[in-house]
Structures are given as structure tokens and as C-alpha cells.
TrEMBL record:
InterPro entries named among the record's database cross-references: Capsule_synth_CapA, CW_Biosynth-Accessory, Metallo-depent_PP-like, Ribosomal_uS2_CS
Superkingdom, natural source: Bacteria
GO function terms (MF aspect): structural constituent of ribosome
Gene Ontology cellular component annotations, sorted alphabetically: ribosome
Protein name: CapA family protein
Capsule synthesis protein CapA domain location: 6-92
A GO BP entry: translation
Family membership: Belongs to the CapA family.
Length: 122
């Protein structure tokens, strides 16, 4: 297995994004296929991404739904992470691959100060 997640690159990208954006959504392609719960390394990466500036983290790859969790960073910032949204539309036949969720979230605020006001799923 080749791990293409480069934490130095992620940190650099998030730093640059913070200079340009009021709210940062990080999309991570990680996790093990068909595993319904995140592995410890996914949690570690998600926390790293939250600590470095992401405001919302959305994961994909396992082809099954994994939990949504609320992380708290060292500076008390709250960051939701959806480890895997499952499959939106797929012909896979393995158990639990026939479902997926769509996140519905509301971001509001003024220039320089946007925040997540609500999060739900369909």
C-alpha cells in the first residue's frame, strides 16, 4: 500500500487556504474499503487537518458509511469530520455498499469570520 497523504503538504496547503478563504472544507480520500468504522490513522489525520485550519472534513474511499464525529482542537475549535459518506450511486454488491449520505450544512458569517451553523444529512 502506498500512503499518498503528506502531512507537510497538507499543512502548507491549509496555511495557504487560510489566507484566501473564510471557511475551509477539507476533502480526504482515506480509510480502508468496506470498513464501517474509521481506523486510528484516519482519526489521527483528521485531527491533524483540524488542528491546521480545516473547518469541516469530509472523507471518502471506504464505499460504506462511517461515523460523523465532532473534534475539538487544542484551541477549543469545533470541527466536524465525516469519515466516509458511503456510495452515492454504485453497482457494488458487497454488504453496506448500497447506501450513502449527503451532508447538508449551513455556513454563515461575515468576511473573515465564517462558521458552520448547522449540519445534517440526507
Amino acid at each position: 500500500m502506498v500512503n499518498l497523504i503528506d502531512t507537510n503538504k497538507i499543512k502548507e496547503d491549509l496555511k495557504r487556504a487560510k489566507e484566501l478563504a473564510d471557511f475551509i472544507i477539507a476533502a480526504l480520500h482515506f480509510g480502508e474499503e468496506y470498513q464501517r468504522f474509521p481506523k486510528e490513522y484516519q482519526k489521527t489525520i483528521a485531527y491533524f487537518v483540524a488542528e491546521n485550519g480545516a473547518d469541516l472534513i469530509i472523507g471518502s474511499h471506504p464505499h460504506v458509511i462511517q461515523p460523523v464525529e465532532l473534534l475539538t482542537t487544542k484551541d477549543k475549535k469545533k470541527v466536524y469530520v465525516a469519515y466516509s459518506l458511503g456510495n452515492f450511486f454504485c453497482g457494488q454488491r458487497k454488504r453496506f455498499t448500497d447506501t450513502g449520505i449527503i451532508l447538508k450544512y449551513q455556513i454563515s458569517g461575515k468576511r473573515g469570520k465564517a462558521e458552520l451553523k448547522a449540519i445534517n444529512y440526507l
